Amino acid sequence: MSEPQAGIFVEGSTSHFFLEYKLIEGVSAAQLKDVLAKAVVLSDTGVNRVWSFGSDCWRSIAPAACPADLKPFAAIGEGKRVAPATQQGIFLWLHGDNHSANFDAAMAATTALASVAVLQLEKIGFLYKDSRDLSGFIDGTENPKGRGQQLVALIPEGEAGAGGSYVMSQQWVHNLASFHALSQSEQEGVIGRTKPDSIELEDELMPENSHVSRSDVKIDGVAQKLYRRSVPYGGVLEHGLYFLAFSCDIRRFDRILQSMFGVSGDGIYDHLTDFSTPVSGNYWFAPSAAELSAIGSL
Ligand code: HEM
């Protein structure tokens, strides 16, 4: 059994750093491997680290160990309602309960990568109340539990990239003033769940454009489940959700986004996109723990 990077499954961290790096032009695969081999072994007590790579980057590092469907993120949607693509090369997610240790780890990793990659996007995330999004709704209720998490998140044994995971990340910027101008029952109609305790609305009360209606996608009877690890980020001036999810199948992300952005055939879009806007979009591959630690010799 190929063990995954353990940090994917550690839940409840109060402090998060999401770091997206752009590769410096002209860097060779050999240079990249050499630098990464040193960077990925840096460790600090209490800091969970998950390393992931964009498709071009991972293909150049490990052409033989690349999962079949890995691809860059492409924009989804039409007109003004679009999930944009901002594909970068390396993604590091650091999390734990010690913000100082996370900060030190983020600085050390960025210094270690400096000759091959430049930090392009940084979001500092935090646990808000009892795992709520800043809208006030609990995020993660329908996430798989126990063994189901690995089944949903990891590429199965026997396939290229086994024990690794397809990853999607998106920075969403919230307009909380407009969301909070709605009554509580209108807000619940936008999400599709009750606000205090996250109970799914009954069928007759569930709007067809609620977030639950648009994200609970089935294809040929198979629920397109994800293991979501999003947390809120930001402060008073700008805030939102850093959406982060892991999947055994990259097509699930496309299908849910198509449904949310009104391009899955029925023309209905997710009402949530009237109150929050994605400003980044990336697909990554998080290799298994063994592949990650062998990066220098792949
Ligand atoms: C502003 C951005 C977003 C916010 C605030 C948000 C928030 C939520 C909330 C509150 C729930 C209900 C509770 C739960 O089951 O976790 C939920 C469910 C869900 N969300 Fe999101 N979400 C966002 C974006 C996305 C995106 C981009 C995707 C996937 C591409 C997604 C996929 C899902 C899925 C699969 C569910 C479970 C649906 C079900 O089976 O009931 N969400 N989200």
Automatic annotation (TrEMBL):
Keywords assigned: Iron, Metal-binding, Oxidoreductase, Peroxidase
Named cofactor requirement(s): heme b
Domain Dyp-type peroxidase N-terminal: 50-126
Domain Dyp-type peroxidase C-terminal residues, every copy: 130-290
PROSITE patterns named in the record: DYP_PEROXIDASE (PS51404)
InterPro entries assigned: Dimeric_a/b-barrel, Dyp_perox_C, Dyp_perox_N, Dyp_peroxidase
Pfam families: Dyp_perox_C, Dyp_perox_N
Recorded GO MF terms: peroxidase activity
Highest taxon of the lineage: Bacteria
Record family assignment: Belongs to the DyP-type peroxidase family.
PANTHER family in the record: DEFERROCHELATASE/PEROXIDASE, DYP-TYPE PEROXIDASE FAMILY PROTEIN
Protein name (database record): Dyp-type peroxidase
Organism annotation: Zhongshania marina
Organism lineage: Bacteria, Pseudomonadati, Pseudomonadota, Gammaproteobacteria, Cellvibrionales
